[in-house]
Design goal:
With 321 residues, this protein is mainly α. It is 84% helix and 0% strand. It is built from ten helices and no strands. The longest helix is centred in the C-terminal third of the chain and has 72 residues. It is elongated and about 135 Å long. The chain starts with 13 loop residues before the first helix and ends with a helix. About 4% of the residues have low confidence.
């Protein structure tokens, strides 16, 4: 697995391209080994089988395109994270461009999660045509099978109608056997379209799986990088806002107490000063309670974010399966 750094939070999807190339190489080697067996099956219905292979080629190009497009997105985010002057953001990350730029400056952009959902929807939309092609290849294979069965059954019906009646049973059986030899010998090749359709659907499904994994890793790493910046800014804001108020209250209370001791005032003045000190301490306690409430609210918000993140991961896991 590729390592990431602070200046390059997103890893390149090259490993998925390697897996896809290795898989296609193995498929090509298997087709080369079985070339003599595959050739008669392909020629049995060359038109439909050629169409299936053509659709498979389109699916391969689309699958590689879905992974290759991530290189530009990853390069843009890593360039922004490194502080480099980046060009116009790519189309996929255009809605997230303000949040990405704000993350580099150490601030946050409101509505990050809604933008992340938009990016996830765009990634999923790009792979819908691959899923459609996988189903289309199976349907084309079934179409070839039914086509072959119809031709075979029509030939068998023609043979039965052409038989002469009134002869000996043995002679009629020999005539039927010889007449059915040709239609039945081609019934196995009639299923060649199903062979090519199912095999092509298998290849398309694996490529779609790799593209989906590449998209999922890209989305997860982008979300981790953006959400971590949001959490850091949210954790820093209460500390910066609350500590000065608490320190001021405590300093004022200590100053008043020091003034009373140093002046040696009478009991009435001391009592009034102690009353003021008690009021200051009460105000400090109220501030501390307010701080505790803000911390509890922040913890609840963090728990809500974790639940949302878990739901997104569960949804991505179900899509992979």
């Amino acid at each position: 697995m590729a390592t990431r750094s602070a200046t390059a939070p997103l890893s390149r999807p090259g490993i998925y391209l390697i897996r896809m190339l290795v898989f296609l190489t193995l498929v090509g080697f298997l087709a080369f080994v079985l070339f003599r067996q595959i050739t008669p099956a392909f020629l049995a219905n060359a038109g439909l089988n050629g169409l299936i292979l053509g659709v498979l080629l389109i699916a391969i190009l689309l699958a590689f395109g879905q992974v290759i497009r991530l290189f530009r997105e990853v390069a843009y985010v890593n360039a922004v994270a490194a502080g480099e002057d980046s060009a116009k953001p790519p189309s996929l990350l255009a809605p997230l461009s303000p949040a990405i730029l704000a993350r580099r400056e150490g601030t946050t952009q409101a509505g990050i999660r809604s933008y992340l959902d938009t990016v996830a929807a765009r990634l999923d939309e790009g792979r819908e045509i691959l899923r459609y092609i996988a189903g289309l290849l199976i349907l084309l294979g079934l179409l070839g099978t039914f086509w072959g069965l119809i031709d075979t059954l029509s030939a068998v019906g023609s043979v039965i109608q052409s038989m002469r009646g009134g002869g000996e049973a043995s002679a009629m059986f020999d005539e039927l056997k010889n007449a059915l030899a040709k239609p039945l010998s081609g019934i196995g090749l009639a299923f060649s379209a199903s062979l090519f359709g199912l095999s092509s659907s298998l290849v398309t499904g694996f490529l779609d799986l790799q593209a989906g994994q590449a998209h999922a890793r890209f989305h997860n790493e982008l979300e981790d990088w953006l959400v971590s910046g949001e959490e850091q800014a949210a954790a820093a804001r209460p500390v910066a806002a609350q500590e000065p108020a608490s320190a001021r209250e405590l300093t004022e209370a200590v100053d008043r107490l020091s003034a009373i001791i140093s002046e040696g005032a009478n009991g009435r003045v001391a009592t009034q000063a102690m009353t003021n000190l008690a009021e200051g301490i009460q105000g400090l306690v109220q501030h501390m309670r307010a701080e505790q409430q803000m911390i509890r609210d922040w913890v609840e918000a963090q728990a809500t974010r974790e639940r949302e993140l878990k739901q997104v991961l569960d949804r991505l896991g179900r899509e992979k399966t």
